[in-house]
Specification:
The chain is an alpha/beta fold. About 40% of the residues lie in helices and about 15% in strands.
Length: about 425
């Protein structure tokens, strides 16, 4: 036997597994070594074992008894999303069918007698004004189903090779949401906002490069349909030496949303009707919004093509829903009814300070009217209330006696101070 190799400190070393001391020795725990020949041998054995393992069977994220029905999904959506009854029904059915499809694929993969039927993915397109609930619907769906969720903005995406984000960064956000659980990420939901902003501005073929329009649509095509995308773990641009994480998008549900300003005029031209709602002195503003919504509900693929989306991209979004602008009554309900209603949140803050907060009906309707004028829907409501409440909340923690603060329409318009009345003492919440 060859003599043992000695270290710089005079200690004799040999491979713990084969006893040989020739070649290179790699140190492990104290007193344990392995030679390069044993490393190569065990690597070959491990490779053979991995090749013998059966292919992984697709996992069903929802056992049949746990997948909520469309009615159950809509009922949960109703807890957070006010109005938009038709879009909520449509989306509930589409989401149910999507995850039922995953269950079908899992059962087919484990079956000895597969049917051979292939069910295609039903990605969703949401059309509606700012603040109508598009993002809220997508986010609430992910919460209901307990699946990973990520939001991306189409305006930040550019064609590969240009300054901006690659489309694969959408998948990176989903990985972050799952703490790098690839299997779970591959069954999540991605919401892409401002999808209308990547439409071509002209139907003519341009000799110049389309950095963030048609080029991005082309880049998204395979991802929407289902492909294995190589995702750079650190984000940013790809480069040849970088390591990638392969993500299969086949079972990821994509929901795309956009305002599509001017689309109703394209629909009106195709339908041969005259759209005179906007700027017409004899028509009420709400009537114009209703006419616009009625036209958008008649939207067809050819209208979206004329708007600037390529036919292949539209084909990857077979389910489409139109969200209507929120009316004054809708906005009042949104402030009061959902589990996360803004009025309930502020009332809880006052309760923790041993006080009460009350909004009169006039105050709520005044808030809704101002929000409608701002034309940003629910987003405007929160900013308006926060502006009204800032001075009250500044002084609230210094209040030494329990009080009730009542806000009416004059307080909302900043024409008066809130009415303050003493109330019976309550137990103050721990801070």
């Amino acid at each position: 036997m060859a003599g043992k190799k000695k270290s710089s400190d005079g200690e004799s070393r040999s491979c713990t597994f084969c006893g040989r001391s020739r070649g290179s020795l790699f140190a492990g725990p104290p007193g344990v070594y392995i030679c390069d020949e044993c490393v190569e041998l065990y690597n070959e054995v491990l490779s053979r074992d991995l090749q013998k393992q059966p292919a992984a069977v697709p996992q069903d994220p929802f056992p049949r008894e746990k997948l909520p029905t469309p009615q159950e999904i809509k009922a949960r959506l109703d807890e957070y999303v006010i109005a938009q009854e038709r879009p909520k029904k449509l989306i509930s059915v589409a989401v149910y069918n999507h995850y039922k499809r995953l269950a079908f694929q899992a059962s087919e993969a484990s079956s000895d007698d597969p049917s051979g039927v292939e069910l295609e993915k039903s990605n969703i397109l949401l059309i509606g004004p700012t603040g109508s609930g598009k993002t809220l619907i997508a986010r609430t769906l992910a919460r209901i189903l307990d699946v990973p969720f990520a939001i991306g903005d189409a305006t930040t995406l550019t064609e590969a090779g240009y300054v901006g984000e690659d489309v694969e960064n959408l998948l990176l956000k989903l990985l972050h949401a799952t703490d790098w659980d690839i299997a779970r990420a591959q069954q999540g939901i991605i919401y892409i906002d401002e999808i209308d902003k990547i439409g071509r501005t002209t139907q003519n073929v341009s000799i110049t490069r389309d950095v963030s329009g048609e080029g991005v649509q082309q880049a998204l095509l395979k991802m929407l349909e289902g492909t294995v995308s190589n995702v750079p773990p650190q984000g940013g641009r790809k480069h040849p030496e970088q390591q990638y994480i392969p993500i299969d998008t086949t079972n990821i549900l994509f929901i795309c949303g956009g305002t599509f300003v001017g689309l109703e005029e394209i629909v009106a031209r195709r339908a041969g009707s005259s759209f005179i709602g906007f700027g017409h002195p004899g028509r009420a503003e709400q009537g114009a919004e209703d006419e616009k919504s009625a036209l958008l509900e008649q939207v067809e693929a050819q209208d979206l093509v004329e708007y600037g989306l390529i036919p292949e991209f539209i084909g990857r979004l077979p389910v489409s829903g139109v969200l209507k602008p929120l009316s004054e009554d809708d906005l009042v309900r949104i402030m009061l009814e959902p589990k996360n209603a803004i009025v309930k949140q502020y009332q809880k803050i006052f309760e923790m300070e041993n006080c009460e907060l009350k909004f009169t009906d006039g105050a709520l309707h005044e808030l809704a009217k101002i929000a409608i004028k701002k034309a940003t829907g629910v987003r405007a409501v929160r900013s308006i209330i926060e502006d009204v409440m800032i001075d009250i909340l500044y002084d609230l923690p210094s209040t030494t006696t329990p009080r009730r603060f009542t806000l009416n329409e004059k307080v909302i318009r900043k024409e008066a101070a809130p009415k303050i009345d003493p109330i019976k003492s309550k137990k103050k919440a721990a801070g």
